[in-house]
Design a protein that fits this description.
globular; two-stranded antiparallel sheet
Length: 91
């Protein structure tokens, strides 16, 4: 069996993490959402900051009760985002 940690995962830079409580509240209040399967995406476009995206990844305990599985899902989402964030860039 191959361990999940054997993959070459890069860092998820702190500047790309959404940490501000105010920004998080604004994000969840925004009406910009879409859902695909069990993944729900919220977003806000901030016109004052160009070419900088901040990301918040959360996996609800109600859907995935085991913390180890939630953390693995978050790691996979983070890595997927890191590898494909150039596709999401606004021009």
């Amino acid at each position: 069996m191959i361990s999940f940690f054997s993959f070459n995962m890069k860092n998820f830079p702190k500047k790309e993490k959404l940490n501000s409580k105010i920004k998080i509240d604004n994000l969840f209040r925004s009406k910009n959402t879409f859902t695909y399967n069990k993944i729900k995406v919220h977003w806000i476009i901030n016109s004052s900051v160009e070419n900088q995206s901040e990301t918040l990844i959360s996996v609800p305990k109600k859907i995935i009760p085991l913390s180890t599985k939630r953390n693995k899902i978050k790691r996979l989402i983070r890595e997927s985002y890191r590898l494909n964030k150039n596709i999401l860039q606004l021009d």
